[in-house]
Amino acid sequence: MRRPIIAANWKMHMTLGEGTELAQGIVKGCRDMDDVDIVLAPPFTALSTVRKEIHDTPIALCAQNLYWEEKGAFTGEVSAAMLKDVGCDYAIVGHSERRQLFGEIDRSANKKVLAALTHDLIPILCVGETDAERDRGVTYVVVDRQVKEALKDVAATQLDRIVIAYEPIWAIGTGRTATPAQAEEVHQSIRGQLAKLFDTDAAETVRLLYGGSVKPDNVDDLMAEADIDGALVGGASLKPDSFNRICGFERRT
Ligand code: PEP
């Protein structure tokens, strides 16, 4: 049994005051949920403040990005060791907004995954196809490539410390969600690919999240799918009521 994870990606939202209020609302609603890992990814500026709010709760802290070098003349970048130092246990890697707006490529995602693992951060590796790629029928080609390249030089024994989020780009922030069946198909394919790249047992340990307009009214059906182990939530994570409801998704056995 893989333990579900619900992760909030606050993107470039939340001043310190707003982030404090949101974190307090989430702590209030979620602190007693003991059958799900809840993860908050505020902007870098709010990591320390949010950490204070979630201290003494099972809620974990996550960065939205990291840089792979240890230290040095890399203006504007933040290292894995710095993120660990501020209290992060997770880091998002290769989000489609980083790929589309900031020129990130599979090779940089790979370096970030390896740096995260070295510093005991769990990478949440994001993969997913564009609308045009889905229309051209190359969804699996794209996702297979992204997974394979990003996990180069990762050992099978490290897979249980890796989370992969399938986020079709056409569903992010658009209100268009993949149907549970569409998402499950790709999740099964990712797990199959992991089994080929590593081995079946290791592939079974990887938690696969779906991301793309997850909301209180679609999370239950998504989470009912066998290979959907959680959600990466953008817009709906910015209000305690909707995020708490998503964390409280209907447990179907
Ligand atoms: C995301 O930012 O990873 C995301 C899935 O956003 P949204 O839920 O707003 O589509």
Q: How does this model look, in words?
A:
With 253 residues, the protein is α/β, with parallel strands linked by helices. Helices cover 41% and strands 15% of the residues. The chain has eleven helices and eight strands. The protein has helices spanning 16-30, 47-54, 80-86, 96-102, 106-118, 131-135, 139-150, 180-197, 200-205, 219-223, 240-247, and strands at 5-9, 37-41, 60-63, 88-93, 122-127, 163-166, 207-211, 230-233. Strands 1-2-3-4-5-6-7-8 form an eight-stranded parallel barrel, surrounded by six helices. Strand 1 (5-9), helix 1 and strand 2 form a beta-alpha-beta unit. Helix 1 runs parallel beside helix 2 (47-54). It starts with a strand and ends in a 6-residue tail after the last helix. The model has no long low-confidence stretch (mean pLDDT 97). Residues 9, 11, 167, 172-173, 211-214, 232-236 line the site of phosphoenolpyruvate.
